[in-house]
Specification:
3 helices, single chain
Length: 87
């Protein structure tokens, strides 16, 4: 299997899980991988490479939009309440 480590299914599944539970930038990594190309896994029956489906890419885009909205809301709250100063 000549797939780069960052395009392998198990890596992206692990990153998504850890990202959703502990460290969000790992979710962003997986979403970026899905948006910019394919993520591959081996089909156990035939031994061929299969890519993650289009619904996975849709979920990746939705997750990125959700995270961007949350970060924007938190930043707006902190700015409005004087906890962050913008020059």
């Amino acid at each position: 299997m000549d797939v780069p480590w960052y395009r392998r299914s198990w890596v992206n599944t692990l990153f998504a899980f850890v990202g959703l539970t502990i460290f969000p930038p790992l979710v962003w990594w997986t979403c970026f991988n899905l948006i910019t190309g394919d993520v591959y896994y081996n089909d156990q029956r035939d031994g061929i490479l299969i890519t993650w489906s289009r619904p996975n890419k849709l979920v990746a885009v939705l997750l990125l939009l959700f995270h961007a909205a949350m970060i924007s809301n938190i930043a707006t709250y902190l700015i409005d309440h004087g906890r962050i100063w913008i020059l």
